[in-house]
Structure formats: C-alpha cells, structure tokens
Specification:
The protein is of the alpha+beta class. The protein contains ten helices and nine strands. It is elongated. The termini are close together. Pfam families: Cass2 (PF14526), HTH_18 (PF12833). This is HTH araC/xylS-type domain-containing protein.
Length: about 280
C-alpha cells in the first residue's frame, strides 16, 4: 500500500471519529507513521494543521446539526467532544464567524469545509534528485534544545535557538571528525514522539562543558540537496519531499531522527548548500 493510500486511510479514521474525541493514534497507525509525524506532515500536504482541519470538519458537521430547530447547542457541543459550551462556542465562532445560537437563525451564512482526499499531482517541475544512504548509528556532540517544543511553535523556537547557538558554531565545527561531516541539525524522535533538537557534529572527541552527547540511531536515509538561504529553502524542500516525493516514492517516513546537514558556514547566503536526510523504510 502506498503512502498516499495510507494517508487517505488516516483521513477515513478521522472522519469516522469526528463525534467525540478523534482517535489520532489510530489515524497515525492507518497512515503508517507516528502521530508526531502525521501532525508534522499534514500541513505540508493540506496547507492547514491537522488540529485545525479536525476543528473545521467538526464545526462543519455541527453547523449542519444546528439547522435542526430542535437541536440544542449543549447537545451538539457534547456530540463533537466539547464538555464546555463556552469552548464549543469559541471554536464554532472561529470557523463560522457567528455563535452557535446565531447559526440557528434563518439566512445566516455558515462556512463548509469538505472532507479532504489526497491525490497525486503531477506538476512537471524540476526532478527531485536523491540518494539512499545506509547509515550506522553515530555519536554527536552539540547544544541541546531546552524546554518544551510544541508543534505549533517549533519553527519559531528553532529560529531563536539558532540565533542563540551561532556563537558556538565554530567551536562545534572544530570537533567534527566523523560522518556525516559538518554542522548538523538533528531532530530526535523516540517512541514516535519529539525527543529534542540539537545543533551538533558527528565526532568521537570529548564533550566540552555546556554541551551534550547523543547517539543518532542507525537508519536508511533518503538524502536531498538544497541550495539557498536555509530559512526559506529548507522549508520549501521539506514541502516538496513530503507532498511530491514521498507519496509516490515507494517509501514511508520512518519514525526516526531527521537530519539537516549544513555544508556552508553562512547558512543564509543565496548560494548556501545543505542537505535533508529523511529516515525511510520501504512501503509495505
């Protein structure tokens, strides 16, 4: 079964559980990935977060139910997993621009968000060159992230993280003596969940004070080249890999540690070179 088919199976699971609490873990299993990966992948494919998609679908169904004059707002709220009428009213107004009570009035305009279906789009753009690399586990030394990184604010936190790390980059590069060579940005994943981010290098050198040692597990990687300011070019590459390459590649995104490799000291130069290393397994 292809990644595209698995993603549509996940959408079917979500659709079937809109009433009550959506079973995100079951949806992730249907997609053949972890919940964390599904939530990361979804915005690249749908241009909206998974949480917002679910909210829109719930509120679309709720609006339809409220058109029944006998329907009570509290009953509809409970049907779609909201124990608090206030929370339901807030979510409803965010989607429709009116309160649930106002939605029952004749002539009120309501929004409708249909169920998504993922399809393969052939765009005829430049080919996506990649190579498959079998990588044994490797030791890294670097500067670990601190605090909680929620999916919704991870990008913003990553930007500030790199600003804070910049003064230590040359010291890190001086430790590099292994493969993959150069400065790395590793997003660790353990048991299908985010387990920290680290600017680091592959090395057997002793760990300096203020830094940390971790091991990136052995994995099969699909490696993609990137050219341009990483603050924009890398995000665009992620979008193409997850929306264009992965669904038709014959691979699935493995629940492992993602690696970005920065080959140019000035990561924000127009000709900066970098790589995306995506852990993959053959799709079943």
């Amino acid at each position: 079964m292809t990644q595209l088919e698995n993603l549509n199976r996940a959408l079917a699971v979500i659709e079937a559980s809109l009433e009550g609490d959506v079973d995100y873990e079951a949806a992730a299993r249907a997609a053949g990935c972890s919940r964390y990966q599904l939530e990361r992948m979804f915005p690249y494919l749908a241009n909206v977060s998974l949480a917002e998609y679910v909210r829109r679908r719930k509120m679309t169904r709720a609006a339809s139910d409220l058109l029944d004059r006998d329907a009570r707002v509290i009953d509809v709220a409970l049907r779609y997993g909201y124990d608090s009428p206030t929370a339901f009213a807030r979510a409803f107004k965010r989607v429709h621009g009116v309160s649930p009570s106002e939605a029952k009035s004749e002539g009120v305009k309501l929004a409708s968000y249909p169920r998504l279906v993922f399809t393969l789009s052939v765009k005829g753009e430049e080919p996506m060159d990649y190579k498959i690399v079998e990588m044994p586990a490797f030791r890294v030394v670097g500067v670990p992230s601190t605090g909680e990184w929620e999916l919704e604010d991870a990008g913003e936190k990553a930007v500030q993280y790199w600003v804070d790390v910049e003064p230590q980059v040359d010291a890190l590069l001086g430790l590099s003596d292994g493969e993959p060579a150069g400065l790395l940005g590793v997003q660790f994943c353990r048991d299908g969940a985010f387990d920290g981010y680290m600017a680091c290098v592959a090395t057997q050198a002793p760990c300096p004070d203020g830094m940390a040692v971790r091991v990136v597990p052995a994995a099969t990687y699909a490696v993609f080249e990137c050219t341009g300011d990483v603050s924009t070019a890398m995000g665009e590459l992620w979008h193409r890999v997850l929306s264009e390459w992965l669904p038709s590649s014959g691979f699935s995104w493995e629940s492992g540690s993602d690696v970005e490799r920065y080959l140019s000291r000035d990561m924000h130069a127009a000709d900066s070179r970098s790589e995306l290393w995506l852990p993959v397994v053959r799709a079943e």
